[in-house]
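Escalated from tier 1: cobalt (II) ion holo job.
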Amino acid sequence: MKKLPLLGDLTPAQFLRDYWHKKPLLIRQAIPGFKPLIKFDKLAEMAALNHVESRLITQTDGHWQMQHGPLSALPPRSQPGWTMLVQGANLFDQGADALLRQFRFVPDVRLDDLMISFATDGGGVGPHFDSYDVFLLQAHGRRRWRIGAQKDLSLVEDMPLKILRNFHPSEEFVLEPGDMLYLPPHYAHDGVAEGDCMTYSIGFRSPSFQELGEAFLQFMADAIELPGRYADPDLEVAKHPAEIPRRLLDTVAEELNKVRWDAEDVTIFLGEHLSEPKHNVFFTGPAKPLTMGRFTDSAAKRGLVLSLKTQMLYRGKHVFINGESFAVGRADKVVLDVLANERRLDGAAMAQASQDVLEALYTWYQDGWIELA
Ligand code: SIN
Ligand code: CO
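Tier 2 regenerated the structure:
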């Protein structure tokens, strides 16, 4: 595989083998001449919206304060020591989406979002660790990072944000625009702005087994079939009426043991769960949708693109989009796999689509999941 400019001298395979989940990597000029994709005013506007996840962090005399968005007012830019964090910039900005998608040497299910932070001089979120891998791309101004592989990850108590009690950095770098620092999970770090600065965090997603287990049981609730009902034709007189009868316990245990699942159930569950939009993601369809006929004609000329908010995945014959799953035939799958991988479908590919696929595409268009290119 060829080198990605993003990873300096490394191919994605080399990066994954030697650094991913293992050790930090500083890449000077990962994106030479990088310019911020979103101006401060636009970022502040986004942070003021209900459906955008944002935080404002300020530090005074070693005391941290955190305010969750929507952020209707920000401290003046002349005031040092504050940070605004805006999650999911990729959901509302084409350029931010394109940047996140440069990291698609990691599968879509592992990509989370692009978070943008703006800080005034001295601002930061304090020494901490994250549970996920992260690439920290310097977008504007300078930030001094201090990092360390410490084992002691104990936190200061009663703080609104995670602050390491004992931070022992072993390395220090000042990042300039275009420089990027990769950190594996649980690596201690602290980034402090030197003058105004913006940092983009490319974040990854690794669901906990507990989260998956709980969601899987909910999924299975819709799938299980346990016909019949408890009966006790040979019931004997209850000596202790409040005690649950042994026979009832044994029978129920036996019935519950009949709940089974196979790889197919796990596939469908995972695809639906991992393509489910986040709680703050809402889709808006076109104000005046075209008719099915006009939509098909236009799509055959212009092609289609997935909405920035759409998560489309597949495995085997199963296709998943925004929490829904479909089992599709081989020919339809060819078309839908292209749409999922390329996140677009050109007019020529549309011509291969069956009536079933065209109808699904039309519904997704009406729902705002896909758009005419
Ligand atoms: C920041 O951009 O200020 C914080 C990013 C991080 O430390 O994870
Ligand atoms: Co962090």
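The chain is about 30% helix and 25% strand.
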